[in-house]
Write a structure and sequence with these properties.
Layout (H helix, E strand, L loop, with lengths): L1 H23 L4 E9 L8 H23 L4 H13 L20 E7 L5 E7 L5 H11 L4 E3 H10 L13 H17 L13 E6 L5 E7 L20 E3 L4 E7 L1 H7 L1 H12 L3 H16 L3 E7 L4 E5 L3 E8 L5 E5 L3
Parallel strand pairs: 3-4
Antiparallel strand pairs: 1-5, 1-11, 2-3, 2-6, 5-6, 7-8, 8-9, 9-10, 11-12
Helix pairs in contact: 2-3, 3-4, 8-9
The protein binds aspartic acid.
C-alpha cells in the first residue's frame, strides 16, 4: 500500500505544481483596432473584407513576434501602429481623411504603463508615422504634446524626414471629401455623425515583463475644420496605460471621448472601484458614452492579459492575440 502511496502523492504534487505554475506564468497579449463606425455586413465586398482581415492579421503577427521574443509593449505598440499607418485602408498615416480645406492633419499618442510617461502630436501634416514622433516626444523632450509646425520642427531635429502632405491623400479619401462637400452644398446643413468616416488605428499590449502600453493614430474626422484636434492625441481620452490596471486605445467621435475622459475612466473604475476591465469598459462605452450621444469603441488589455473590445457602433475593425493562442480578427458586431 505504502509503495503505491508515494508515487501517487508525487504525481498529485507534480500536477498541482504545474497547474499553479501555469496560472502564474507571465502572459503577453495585444489587441488592435482599425476604427469603428458604420461597419455592417453587406457594406464591403468579400475582397474588401479580406483586405482588412489580412492587414489586421499581419499587424497581429508582427506584434506577436515582438512580444514573443521579449520585446517591450511600447515597441510592439509603435511597430504595429506603423504598419497600420502605412496601409491606405485605415484613417491614419497614408489614407487619412481630409479636412474641410482638403489637407490631411494627423494626431497620435502613446503611453507607457510602467512609468506613466506619454508623448503626443497633433495637427502634423508632413510626418509619415505620427506614432513614432509621439514616442520621440515622450523620450526626447520635456514635453508631452507638440502640435503643427512646432512638432514638425522637433521632428526635423530628431532625424525625421518631412514628406509632402500629398502622400497621405488616396483617391478614396479624396472622393469622400468631394462627396461631403457636394452634399453640404446641396443640403445647406451640417453633416450628422452618421456620415463621419471613421477608421483610426490603435494598439494596446502587455509584454512578458508585465508592462502595459497603448497608442492611437488618426487622421481625425472626415471634413473636420482644419485645426480641429480630437481625442486620439489626448492622454486619458483616446489613449491610456497604467501597469496597475490596463492599457486602452479608443476610436469614435473624439469630442465625446474627451468629455468622458473615456480611456482614463476605464482605468479609474478598475483602480478605485475594483471593477473588472470588462465591467469598466461596459460602463464607460455602453452606458456613459452612449448616454452623452457619443459613438465608437475601445480596445483594452489588463495586467493579467484579459482582453476586451467594446463599441456601440455596428462594427469595429479589431483583432487580438495572446501567447500560445490563435490570433482573432473581427469586423462586425455579431461576430
Ligand atoms: N477619434 C478620432 C477623432 O475624433 C476619430 C476616429 O476614431 O475615427 O479624431
Amino acid at each position: 500500500m505504502k509503495k503505491l502511496l508515494y508515487p501517487v502523492l508525487a504525481a498529485a504534487l507534480f500536477i498541482i505544481f504545474s497547474c499553479s505554475n501555469k496560472e502564474n506564468r507571465t502572459q503577453y497579449g495585444l489587441v488592435i483596432h482599425g476604427g469603428s463606425g458604420n461597419i455592417y455586413k453587406g457594406k464591403y465586398t468579400s475582397e474588401e473584407e479580406n483586405a482588412y482581415k489580412v492587414k489586421l492579421m499581419e499587424a497581429l503577427t508582427l506584434g506577436d513576434s515582438i512580444l514573443n521574443s521579449g520585446g517591450s509593449s511600447l515597441e510592439c505598440v509603435e511597430k504595429v501602429i506603423n504598419l497600420l499607418e502605412d496601409s491606405p485602408l485605415f484613417n491614419a498615416g497614408k489614407g487619412a481623411v481630409l479636412t474641410n480645406v482638403g489637407t490631411c492633419e494627423l494626431d497620435a499618442s502613446i503611453m507607457d504603463g510602467r512609468t506613466l510617461n506619454a508623448g503626443a502630436v497633433a495637427g502634423v501634416q508632413r510626418i509619415k508615422n505620427p506614432i513614432s514622433l509621439a514616442k520621440t516626444v515622450m523620450t526626447n523632450s520635456r514635453h508631452l504634446l507638440l502640435t503643427g509646425d512646432g512638432a514638425e520642427k522637433f521632428a526635423l531635429e530628431n532625424e525625421f524626414n518631412l514628406i509632402d502632405n500629398e502622400y497621405f491623400r488616396t483617391k478614396k479619401r479624396y472622393d469622400q471629401w468631394q462627396n461631403s462637400i457636394e452634399k453640404k452644398l446641396k443640403q445647406k446643413e451640417h453633416r450628422t455623425e452618421k456620415d463621419e468616416k471613421l477608421g483610426t488605428v490603435g494598439c494596446a499590449a502587455l509584454d512578458l515583463n508585465g508592462n502595459l502600453a497603448a497608442g492611437t493614430s488618426t487622421g481625425g474626422i472626415s471634413s473636420k475644420r482644419f485645426g480641429r484636434v480630437g481625442d486620439s492625441p489626448i492622454i486619458g481620452a483616446g489613449t491610456y496605460a497604467n501597469n496597475k490596471t490596463c492599457a486602452v486605445s479608443a476610436t469614435g467621435t473624439g469630442e465625446y471621448f474627451i468629455r468622458n475622459v473615456a480611456a482614463y475612466d476605464i482605468s479609474a473604475k478598475m483602480e478605485y472601484q475594483g471593477k473588472s476591465l470588462n465591467e469598466a469598459a461596459e460602463e464607460v462605452i455602453i452606458s456613459k458614452l452612449t448616454e452623452l450621444g457619443g459613438s465608437g469603441g475601445i480596445i483594452a488589455i489588463d495586467n493579467k492579459a484579459n482582453i476586451v473590445t467594446k463599441f456601440n457602433t455596428k462594427g469595429m475593425f479589431r483583432g487580438s492575440v495572446k501567447n500560445g493562442e490563435m490570433p482573432i480578427v473581427k469586423l462586425y458586431i455579431d461576430e
